[in-house]
């Protein structure tokens, strides 16, 4: 049995939910609020961060990239040609580079600001770090998002999928990143037709369905968020 | 042929140099200054960060954890019982968790402040971000270092090596982290005898020798930095 500690709007958590769905591996979900730092969860992951995966009585598998390796080692072979890491070490290195790019760099430079300003600040009370979004921070997040969209377009123009011929963790990482921002209606799709075309392909995969059904109390998704034809 | 883009005081770069030495794989080194952002290096790694490894005409392998996976895939088997990632997926997940802990979390919370304040600020000119170290930042770095030393002690008291029975990437990551701070004489060894004992074991490995010979112009290493009996 698989148990996933996650947060609905954490990009690395969404990535793992997508990977699990691609592996057709069901997991029980437990939501963790990033500012909670509850002691029982710190015993699971002393870093206090999500996602964390547990399988049966095994030790906690902490962080998205470590979970991705674990799922490849335990499920990858059975996926056959749908395996999410290529066979060749060079191809694997490229997938891992992009996985890190979208789960860490893009989140640090853009994604986390949207989530903090437009979601987490609304979920917390005023005395606990809640409040209205900061427009300067959002402007910076939008500026940096443009650069990451250009990079996705650059890759999608030259390759079948982001890391090469094969659909991979790289696409799921970029998809998790964009889906979070798209929930908030902050992706300028019309300006990036190549990215839109790539996202349409990934969005229509069955593994994406649960992500598109996500909903946060009091913060509804953008109108087109669920539409496959947006 | 292997080519490594690195920085002498970057913890992830030191980690890769240690891994290469454990694999007995020689590499040509090219030093990159983090604030340089030269165009020819951005073509190698668009993220602009080190370490980056290239093998023959292969594509760049970017970031320490991706290089660690690459070297395990291409050299791990030949290391036999000295392999730096265990065989079992659970053991691998634990090594990867700790590798991330020491190369990312410990660096973000402590290591990078020592390096920025005590090295990089002295290497840059006043108009380019150079200047004296900020004492408040250093105080925070020292406070956070204590927590990471306690964590190493916690692990070293319970296990033969940090991730379990076997010497692994986890030890090399923690060793790279501490060696950088030790160069600056900032590790309070006397207060953490268990950590000192573990570090003495790793410091005496042949792979550590090139690291102990490191020297930065104008910023000499602490007196005991090279001593195996410190």
From TrEMBL, chains A, B:
Residues 88-230 form the GST C-terminal domain. Residues 1-79 form the GST N-terminal domain. SUPFAM superfamilies: GST C-terminal domain-like, Thioredoxin-like. The keyword Transferase applies. The keyword Phosphoprotein does not apply. Keywords: Transferase. Pfam families: GST_C (PF00043), GST_N_2 (PF13409). CDD domains: GST_C_family. InterPro entries: Glutathione-S-Trfase_C-like, Glutathione-S-Trfase_C_sf, Glutathione_S-Trfase, Glutathione_S-Trfase_N, GST_C, Thioredoxin-like_sf. PROSITE patterns: GST_CTER, GST_NTER. GO terms for molecular function: glutathione transferase activity. One of its GO terms (biological process) is glutathione metabolic process. Homodimer. This is Glutathione S-transferase. It comes from Cohaesibacter celericrescens. The lineage of its organism: Bacteria, Pseudomonadati, Pseudomonadota, Alphaproteobacteria, Hyphomicrobiales.
